[in-house]
Amino acid sequence: MLSLKTYCIFLVLAVLLAGCSSDQEGPVVVRFTEDSAYNIDAGETKLAVFDLDAMTVEHPMGIGYGSFLKMGELKGIKFEAVLIRFDFTLSEEDIGKTVSYAELDLPVRLVQDTLFSLKVAFYELLEDFSEEDSITAVPPLAAGGVPDSNGTVPERLLNIQSSSYNLDPILVNDWLEGTKDHRGIAIVPNEIPASPGIVEMNARDYGSDPPVVRVEFTDGSTANYAAEADYSIATFTTDGLDCVGGVATRVYFEFDIEGLDDRAMIHYSSLVLTVDNELSLGASPGEESLLELPTNFYYYLYTPGSGDYLDQEFFSGTGVNAGDFDPYETETVRIPLVGFIPDVAEGERENTGLVFQSDLEGSRFQRVSFFGVDADSLAPRLEIIYSLPADFSGNP
Amino acid sequence: MRWRSKAIITPVLMVSILYASGARSQSVFGLNYLGEHCIRGDSRSRALGYSALAVPDTSSVFTMNPATLAELGGISFSISEIMDMSSIKYGDVIADQNRFQMPSVMLAVPVGYGLVIGSGYITRFKGRNDFAFNGESLPDYPTPQEIYKHRSSIFSVPLTASWKRWKWFSIAGELQLERGSITDEVNITFNDDSFDDAVSTRKRNFTGTSWAASVLANPFSRLYLGGFFDDRIDYSVEEYFEYSRDHLDSASTWDFELPSAYGLGVAIGLTERWWLSSTYWSRRAPDRTGFEQLENSIGDERLIAFGIERRGGIDGGFFSRIPIRLGFYENVWHLEYPSGKPVRSLFATLGTGFSMPSGPGSLDISVELGRIGSLDENGIEETVLRLGLSMNMSERWTRRRREEH
What does residue B224 show for φ and ψ, rounded to 5 degrees? Predict the structure, then answer.
């Protein structure tokens, strides 16, 4: 007579045996696969490499927000001017007072090196500006420049030692009384320095110690008038495959995969780019050392709505991938194209190419440059790993 | 054990058996052709080396001979499961395996004196293999893995009627609904989530109907004769090819014939308790449609089996009361590997059984130890230990007594 206990032992044994593992059968089954008794063969897995056409496309834009105002040149990005508008709202007790002395205080935080200086001049702006605007060129300036306390327009040095510049008190008095519109001033380099360098100073968005105009009135009282808007205007002239954030320079890749085997079952596809590390910029020196911002290059890859870069739809489209890499160390960037290439191969998506842009295009000056199409093994390319269908032989 | 306990434990056991069927593979030879032939019969039949074609049974529905269903006195249910442990040897390579088969189940219902009908699920052929090879490596990329998955399950749903025409003679007829599929899948994969798999699948769905007939005769008290005829099956095979790229998909239909099979058996009682039994079973070579690579490699299948049983008694100690079964069988497969060298299963078997507490039924266990294939003949050899478990449950029809008021 079988007891419940015995019955349960059988049950437990069955479950335990079910949990026992088995060895891989591959090594023994090879007997059947090699002589085709089991005649199903996995298709061959291949790597297909396609050349790309590549070009840099400019989509000028500016960055109105940022912790630092920049002047000078950094990795080919030229900071053409700094615009600052001050809030000259008088307090009740200062109404009717006359300015006896005024100076502009620019909180310089970092320069290329201690000996680096930029010769600059101050100009009045003839038009208003907004940090929300995309300003890609220096706006119209009043002729003559902003005079100093002597009424002359001096050449001023912007460096780590100098941060205060006296201003014509009459002009400042007019701005305060409203007898003259204050649309802001522009700080513009007077000459190109012998070697490129950069000066970074606190911007209003830094949160403290912004650019200010310090004023002393004839009664001996003082007042500070801080910036209410500021802007770094940058330009970039490309001479290769450059992707630059802050000035919106993008790289456009075109390709043709007509030669891909019609039976290809795609595992993986990637855009392979070789970085010219010497031209890389992950963050400005101030952002890196003072704000400790990460220096990786953040990219966004999309397939544009139009293959014509003169069409506005070219500058937007369907995202393919986004990510980041260290532009100073990474030599080869492989960007997975996820479902894009399979869709193109299946004819489910029009092949309008791929556009590589900085994902911080509207907020950070970054640069990465790639070796061009003539760079042989370093040239950009499209790699597709695929397998052919399995061979099910023996079909009737 | 009370009926309530059985009611709880039985489903648990069945679920655990079904869970176990997720383990890998049947015989490694089952990778080829239709798979491994699952010879019909419960653990008692297996313990007797599948020699039980002429052995009557009053508790099992899942016997080798459907004519024995007429012996059942009540609604009966049988479930049977096998677990294999094997060591496969090929050259210097050895792979140890654990395997489970999908259990076979049968239910029988007496509908009149001597007439019993039954149905269930019986696996005819079974194959299950998972194996992998490394693909050719690609520069700067991970190495692909080629993962092969083979699933073969061709089964039969018999609708059986068994009639005990005379006390010494039973006859059974079966309408068999034949179904099943053989699926081969090749998945090329990389150990990297950013890579998609490339999957190629061939699925062959088999459908058909057939019939079978069997007899069991008891001309003398200690002599039983059994016969079984399983008609040919004309399968219609729907074949689908599916790939990761839809435009490559295709489908076709073709026919496949599994020839008729027949079996003969005898059981001789040496004494009241000691019985000898033997079975011969054979099927002609099927065609190789769909398996073109097996040209000249498909032959006749046959089974030769012998068994001896000391049936259970009612006196004496525990070991005296339980049945003891021993057997031996040779099963020559349809598959010849290589051509002209049929795959042979040679097994010695033993087993016993226990009565179900408080009611008709039995729990039978079997152990098979043997070898499939040989290094000399086939170049690959499996040493196999099989554990079989069958559970037969039955309740007699009882008529509720009418209360007289």
Answer: -120, 140
Residue for token pair 């298709």 = A43
> Cis (ω within 30 of 0) for the bond into B66?
no
Residue pair B179/B210 in contact (Cβ under 8 Å)? The answer is no
Substitution target in B27, B33, B84, B194 with the highest count of A β-carbons within 10 Å is B194
Please state the domain extents for chain B. 3-396
CATH number for the domain formed by residue range(s) A45-59+248-390: 2.60.120
Contact B127, B35 (CB under 8 A): yes
Closest CB to A18: pick one of B23, B90, B243.
B23
Task: Give the tokens for residue B334.
Answer: 């349809």
Q: What is the tens place of the pLDDT at every residue in B42-92?
A: 999 999 999 999 999 988 999 999 999 998 888 999 999 888 888 999 888
Distance of CA B237 to the CA centre of its chain: 22
**CA-to-CA separations, A340 to A87, A302, B335, in angstroms, rounded:** 51, 10, 47
Instruction: Judge whether residue A71 has pLDDT over 70.
Output: yes
| Contact assessment for residue B311 and residue B83, using Cβ atoms and an 8 Å cutoff | no
| Per-residue tokens: B307 | 């068994």
Residue A37: predicted pLDDT: 85
Q: Are B200 and A392 in contact (CB < 8 Å)?
A: yes
Domain extent listing, chain A? 45-59+248-390, 68-236
pTM for the complete prediction? Answer: 0.82
Beta bridge partners of A227: A86
Amino acid identity for residue B381 in this structure: E
Nearest in space to A319 (alpha carbons), one of A303, A306, A338: A303
Predicted confidence at residue A4, as pLDDT, reads: 61
Domain B3-396 coded CATH 3.40.50.720? no
Closest CB to B20 among A18, A26, A336: A18
- Residue A16, classed as helix, strand or coil, is helix
pLDDT tops 70 at residue A1: no
Residue in chain A lying closest to B31 (CA): A38
**pLDDT one-digit tens code per residue, A147-192:** 998 889 888 988 887 788 999 999 999 999 999 999 999 999 988 8
The CA-based angle B13-B18-B19, given to 5 degrees, is 95
Residue A224, token pair as written in the block: 């500070």
For residues B97-103, give the mean pLDDT: 73
Contact A355, A322 (CB under 8 A): no
